[in-house]
């Protein structure tokens, strides 16, 4: 199942809600991964925003749950706004809450994205039996995300590939890995492929803050899709 909630809004439209959180990542002494708070917010929003975009929704509001402290609110907002700039998207309204009564020894942030999508434009349950699969970007987690940024699939690629006529569906890959997301995608579309393999990437590894995403597509468009994704394109092979 997708990591989003669809709520009826008007007769022909759904509200889409996606969320992500991080803990132990930041600038506090006991954080497991030491990184600035702009980056924490950037990657937190990346996950929720990619989930929203991948189902065809347009983001309309952002909620930040800040457990770090009042003094870091502006830095969290700045990290979020960076994503919108990179994707050439207009900033959306931001609200949220800060835990200011108690101080935590580790950093924690929650991100919620609210979007909307027309019912006939939803990018779900479109994968056919003849579909081929690919991973765009490499699965990275923890310090790898900081050290190997060039291996992360740009969020703008989701926008470009969703518009391609040969792309059926896009699924951001999370902590359970490519194999898990592929199994879920196949189940959701009633497909009975036996297995999936890759010659170049670990399909069972956590992809942390959605550093890669799973793609299903019409084989006829593979060359064009691979050209758009460039070095981020990794073909996945089914065992049928």
Topology summary:
Elements: E1 4-10, E2 13-23, E3 25-26, E4 33-34, H1 37-54, E5 58-66, H2 73-86, E6 94-98, E7 108-118, E8 132-136, H3 143-147, H4 155-162, E9 167-172, H5 177-188, E10 196-197, E11 213-217, H6 222-229, E12 233-238
Parallel strand pairs: 3-4, 5-6
Antiparallel strand pairs: 1-2, 2-7, 5-7, 8-11, 8-12, 9-11, 10-12
Helix pairs in contact: 1-2, 1-4
Count of spatially separate domains:
2
Kindly report the CATH topology of the largest domain: 60s Ribosomal Protein L30, Chain: A
The spatial strand order of the largest sheet comes to 1-2-7-5-6
What's the tally of helices? 6
Query: CATH first level of the largest domain: which class?
Result: Alpha Beta
> Mean pLDDT, rounded to whole units?
93
């Amino acid at each position: 199942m997708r990591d989003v909630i669809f709520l009826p809004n008007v007769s022909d439209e759904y509200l889409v809600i996606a969320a992500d959180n991080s803990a132990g990542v930041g600038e506090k002494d006991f954080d497991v991964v030491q990184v600035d708070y702009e980056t924490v917010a950037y990657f937190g929003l990346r996950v929720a925003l990619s989930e929203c975009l991948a189902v065809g929704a347009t983001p309309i509001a952002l909620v930040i749950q800040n457990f770090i402290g009042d003094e870091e609110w502006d830095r969290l907002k700045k990290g979020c706004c960076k994503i919108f700039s990179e994707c050439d998207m207009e900033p959306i309204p931001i609200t949220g809450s800060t835990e200011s009564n108690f101080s935590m020894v580790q950093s924690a942030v929650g991100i919620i994205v609210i979007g909307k999508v027309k019912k006939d434009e939803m990018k779900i349950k479109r994968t056919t039996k003849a579909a081929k699969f690919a991973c765009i970007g490499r699965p990275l987690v923890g310090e790898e995300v900081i050290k190997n940024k060039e291996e992360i699939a740009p969020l703008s690629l989701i926008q470009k590939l969703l518009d391609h006529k040969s792309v059926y569906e896009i699924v951001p890959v999370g902590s359970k890995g490519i194999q898990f997301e592929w199994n879920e995608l196949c189940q959701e579309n009633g497909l009975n492929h036996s297995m999936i393999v890759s010659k170049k990437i670990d399909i069972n590894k956590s992809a942390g803050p959605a550093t890669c995403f799973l793609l299903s597509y019409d084989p006829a468009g593979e060359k064009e899709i691979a050209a758009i994704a460039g070095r981020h394109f990794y073909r996945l092979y089914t065992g049928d």
